[in-house]
Amino acid sequence: MSRDSTIEEDHQSRSNFVRELVQETNNSNMVSPISDRSIPKRIIQFWDNLDQLPSDVEECITTWRKVEKWGVERLLFDNQMARDFIQRKLGLRYLLAYDKCYHPAMQSDYFRLCYIFVEGGCYIDADDVFSGTQFECLFNDERLKIQPLCYDISSNSMVASKIFTEKGTDETGWIFYFNNNPLIAGNGHPLIERALLQATFSLEESPINNLPEIQSTTGPGNLTKSIFDAITENNELEQGLMVLCDWENIAKSKWELSYRNDNRNWRLSNNQSYKE
């Protein structure tokens, strides 16, 4: 079997794994909590340069102020604050890995793994708009809570969650995977640890002048592979995972934002040097 065939088979195995988890769940109560430990009521967000925070992104971030009335703390990090946190809490190895993240989206990918592993909490992308729905129950136990996604290769578009979460639903060319937004977990979670270590290894192994693919190195691809590998090795870890098939009722990404039209959009800068 060729290397390309093996890689394709691995991708399909991961997609099938996610599909089965999602369609068996299709609700927010996949399994009983593995402990009564709670997650810190804290939302963490990131924008690399807060001195140049676009006004439309700031509007998205501001929608989360509503959670403060429920006792949820909000923290907003920039690049320097993220570097300081990683250096202080995890040390030089992880700081060097972070510094190899060549795009702000990649920095946020890596930083969220570092922060959630060390402190626990709820990481949310800066372009997510909060609906106002109460969601404090997601902090009630230390399970990793993540949102599933499905991409249709043939139409080059995302499949609506109400479609791909239905049991038995599948089409040729559909790719099921886990998003890394939101990322909600207690500190020290083994699945977050696995994803952080895998991202760190990938960055360390990348040649100095190489710009690795963002999604698979630090983003949803890395998270999906890490969860698949960890649960395949130890299926008891599945008890520590909660699939959020209804996250869109809580928040939605806003696509009509100015930064998506230039190289601040990771899709336009993938494998390319980033310049502000």
Distance between the termini: 43 Å
Give the C-level CATH assignment: Alpha Beta
> Which sequence of SSEs, written as H and E, runs from N to C?
HEHEHHHEEEEEHEEHHHEEH
Largest beta sheet: strand ordering? 2-1-3-9
> What's the overall average pLDDT, rounded?
90
CATH architecture: Alpha-Beta Complex
Radius of gyration, CA atoms, in whole angstroms: 18 Å
Helix content: 25-40%
Number of helices: 10
Instruction: Please identify the oligomeric state.
Output: single chain
The major β-sheet equals: 4 strands, mixed
Describe this structure in words.
- The chain is an alpha/beta fold and about 280 residues long.
- About 40% of the residues lie in helices and about 15% in strands.
- The protein has helices spanning about 5-25, 55-60, 80-90, 90-100, 105-120, 160-165, 190-205, 215, 220-235, 265-270, and strands at about 40-45, 75, 120-125, 130, 145, 150, 155-160, 175-180, 185, 240-245, 250-255.
- Helix 4 (about 90-100) packs across helix 7 (about 190-205).
- The termini are far apart.
- Residues about 1-5 and about 25-30 have low confidence and may be disordered.
